[in-house]
Every structure is written in structure tokens, then in C-alpha cells.
């Protein structure tokens, strides 16, 4: 796969939200509920960033992203179907590449219970996605076909 990830024009922000936990007492807070991105995504390559202004320096884990497919759910008459779940890291860009499929999907985020706040940002990749493997297979197939055809021609002319 050949991607141009370093070009800013190849990325479009699709979601941004900051949430804060509700204080129960001066020293305790309720867990942040699941963060739902209410947007349909049509791209298989995402960049996700989760930050927290109250996170300790030793925290690395930022939670999980769930990829949901509403089309499957509607067809089966159930709630949204989780297609994939990915672990996310705090204070860094998480590059996620999902398998190719033609269906749009939505994403939800679950942050750890100990987070007091979280800012979640998501970008989708809109640049050109060249599949080098398929291109190489096509090239080999064409070259092999020409080689085989020439051998068949040689055989049909053999003994004349």
C-alpha cells in the first residue's frame, strides 16, 4: 500500500469533542460515558488523537475505539454492530487502517474510568491510496500471459 500520510491536504477532520467527568465528591468523579461520533465515515484509514489535561505523565493507555456498522444492524434488526475494536494510546496520533469494505460506519470511544477529562479528535485520510500489491500482481499476470501465449504460438508452429 502506498500512502501519502505526511501531506496535511490528505487529511480531513471528521470529529472533535472535549468531555469532562462529573464530580461526585471533591475527590471522586463519575466515569466519562462512551463518546459517540455521530458522523458516517466512508474511509478505511483514520488518525485518532486522545489527550487529557489532567492525565499523569505515567499514563499511556487512552481507551478503545469501536467501529460500528449500522447497515448490518438494520438488516438484522439489532443495535449497532461492532465490527472492530482498537486500543488507543494517549497523547499521540493513532493510525488505524481497517479492512476494505464498501459500507459506511461510525465510531465510538471509551476512555478509562480514571480520566477526569478527554479531548478526542479524528481525521480521515482522503489522499490517493495505491495498492502496490494489486498493481504488482496485475503486472505479473500480464507478463505471464504474454509469455504463455508466445509458448503456445511456438508449439503451434513446431514441426511445420
Question: In summary, what is this structure?
Answer:
By secondary structure, the chain is α+β, with helices and mostly antiparallel strands. The protein is 21% helix and 39% strand. The chain starts with 10 loop residues before the first strand and ends with a helix.
If you had to describe this structure to a student in words, what would you say it looks like?
By secondary structure, this protein is α+β, with helices and mostly antiparallel strands. The protein folds into two domains: 8-129, Jelly Rolls (Sandwich), CATH 2.60.120; 131-160. It is 21% helix and 39% strand. It has helices spanning 70-76, 132-157; strands at 11-20, 35-41, 45-51, 61-69, 81-89, 93-97, 105-110, 117-125. It has a four-stranded antiparallel beta sheet with strand order 1-8-3-6, with no helix packed on it. The protein has a four-stranded antiparallel beta sheet with strand order 2-7-4-5. The protein is elongated, with a radius of gyration of 24 Å. The mean pLDDT is 86.
CATH class assignment of the largest domain: Mainly Beta
Gyration radius (Cα, Å) is 24 Å
Assembly classification: single chain
Q: Assign a percent range to the helix content.
A: 10-25%
Whole-number tally of structural domains: 2
Q: Terminal Cα separation, in Å? A: 49 Å
Question: What class would the helix/strand composition place it in?
Answer: alpha+beta
Helix count equals 2
Amino acid at each position: 500500500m502506498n500512502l501519502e500520510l505526511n501531506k496535511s491536504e490528505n487529511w480531513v477532520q471528521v470529529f472533535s469533542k472535549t468531555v469532562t467527568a462529573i464530580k461526585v465528591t471533591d475527590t471522586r468523579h463519575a466515569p466519562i460515558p462512551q463518546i459517540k461520533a455521530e458522523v458516517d465515515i466512508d474511509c478505511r484509514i483514520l488518525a485518532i488523537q486522545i489527550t487529557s489535561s489532567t492525565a499523569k505523565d505515567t499514563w499511556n493507555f487512552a481507551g478503545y475505539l469501536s467501529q460500528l456498522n449500522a447497515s448490518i444492524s438494520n438488516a438484522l434488526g439489532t443495535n449497532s454492530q461492532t465490527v472492530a475494536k482498537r486500543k488507543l494510546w494517549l497523547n499521540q496520533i493513532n493510525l488505524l487502517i481497517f479492512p476494505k469494505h464498501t459500507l459506511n460506519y461510525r465510531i465510538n470511544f471509551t476512555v478509562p474510568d480514571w480520566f477526569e477529562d478527554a479531548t478526542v479528535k479524528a481525521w480521515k485520510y482522503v489522499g490517493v491510496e495505491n495498492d502496490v500489491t494489486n498493481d504488482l500482481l496485475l503486472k505479473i499476470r500480464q507478463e505471464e500471459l504474454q509469455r504463455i501465449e508466445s509458448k503456445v504460438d511456438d508449439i503451434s508452429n513446431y514441426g511445420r
